[in-house]
Design goal:
about 375 residues, alpha/beta, five-stranded parallel sheet, single chain, globular, FAD/NAD(P)-binding domain
């Protein structure tokens, strides 16, 4: 019997466990420190009051798959050479180890942000911002991507559209100045059509913006954001997407050696790390794709097939192509999508489909399908 140990029960860990449950001769242990899962877009639903924390959570108690054991534990050490993992409750050894621990946030990397910034990239942060919104009735709202890469590239733009809609519905939008800042050259660099649609959406809503500029610090006392070039911009409410980084336990393991920008180095074709029998998928890996659940799901499919082939003493023909669909909520009950293909050809392709109510239904149908696949 081959033992597969999966660290992290996000999109990648859940999909990989589900696929391996169909494979004979495999026992899977799935470890996560949390007791439940939620979709990234659910934080936006919580932010604007469409959903509550309890309504978006999916308990791991309901993740029941043949040959898969879920354990709620915190990973404290990883030895990739021995494929040995220590948690707060014990030690595990594996024939195949898959690291899917995602990315952690580092708000302290931007001085002043912990003291005076708001965020919606955690559920707690989305709840706090939701509770703050009624008090924002005038002034300057500054929304900023602090450092790329970050999870779900469209999310900051979706939040901006939804906040605009919230302020309109509450009759205060005319008294609020909204400004967006990002160090990236465009909203979605691989897709000019998507970037144009987002910028057109900003302009139609009276949202001003700066791309290709970075905010390095906040001065909470003076209520100003300080750009990398020294320019300052005042704010009354600052909403930021904090810097992301690999979890400390992953960095301490040595898995990030030679990885791009401090992430886990993988072969983009099959998500193998330089350590025998060890893979990394999802946000913690340096595969040349955005950090988004749809890519973690695709990576899981490749790793499942690669593990199955190695158990057969064969070589998998499955290759990660970096393909996926990202949905973008524009408000007003309409969603757009971009179908991205990063690795199958000589250059990335990312055609854009404009916002519609039909795509909103498609987005939630995809989410319902995943929920049924994993938790039913």
């Amino acid at each position: 019997m081959n033992h597969v140990l999966i660290l992290g029960a996000g999109f990648g860990g859940l999909e990989l466990s589900t696929r391996l449950s169909d494979l004979d001769g495999v026992d899977v242990t799935l470890i996560d420190r949390s007791d439940s899962f939620y979709y990234g877009f659910s934080k936006l639903d919580v932010l604007i009051g469409r959903e509550t924390r309890d309504s978006v959570l999916m308990s791991y108690r309901d993740f029941v798959k043949k040959g898969v054991e879920f354990r709620q534990e915190t990973v404290t050490a990883i030895d990739p050479s021995a494929r040995r993992v220590t948690t707060n409750r014990g030690t595990y050894e594996a024939d195949y180890l898959v690291v899917a621990l995602g990315a952690d946030y580092q708000p302290e990397a931007t001085p002043g942000f912990v003291e005076d910034g708001l965020e919606f990239y955690t559920l707690a942060g989305a709840e706090r911002l939701r509770d703050e919104l009624p008090s924002i009735t005038s002034g300057r709202v500054l929304i900023a991507v602090l450092r790329p890469p970050y999870k779900c590239p469209p999310a900051p733009y979706e939040a901006t559209f939804l906040l605009h809609e919230y302020f309109v519905q509450h009759g205060v939008r005319d008294a609020i100045e909204m400004h967006f800042v990002s160090p990236m050259p465009a909203p979605i660099p691989p897709s000019p059509d998507t970037s144009k649609a987002i910028l057109d959406g900003f302009e139609a809503r009276g949202v001003t913006y700066d791309f290709g500029r970075r905010i390095d610090a906040l001065d909470p006392r003076r209520k100003v954001a300080v750009f990398a070039d020294g320019e300052e911009r005042p704010y009354d409410a600052f909403i930021g997407i904090p810097k992301h980084r690999v979890p400390d336990v992953v960095e301490a393991s040595g898995l990030t050696k030679d990885g791009a920008d401090g992430w886990v180095h993988v072969d983009p074709r099959n998500l193998r790390t330089p350590f025998a029998g060890v893979y990394a998928i999802g946000d913690c890996a340096d595969a040349p794709v955005p950090r988004a659940g749809v890519f973690a799901v695709a990576e899981a499919a490749v790793v499942a097939e690669d593990i199955a082939a190695r158990i057969r003493n064969d070589e998998s023909a499955e290759r990660f192509l970096g393909q996926g669909t990202c949905y973008i909520e524009f408000g007003g009950g309409e969603v757009a999508k971009v179908d991205v293909d990063f690795l199958s050809g000589p250059a990335p392709k990312a055609p854009f489909t404009p916002p519609s109510a039909e795509l909103l239904r498609e987005k939630y149908a995809w989410a319902a399908d995943r929920r049924t696949r994993w938790f039913s």
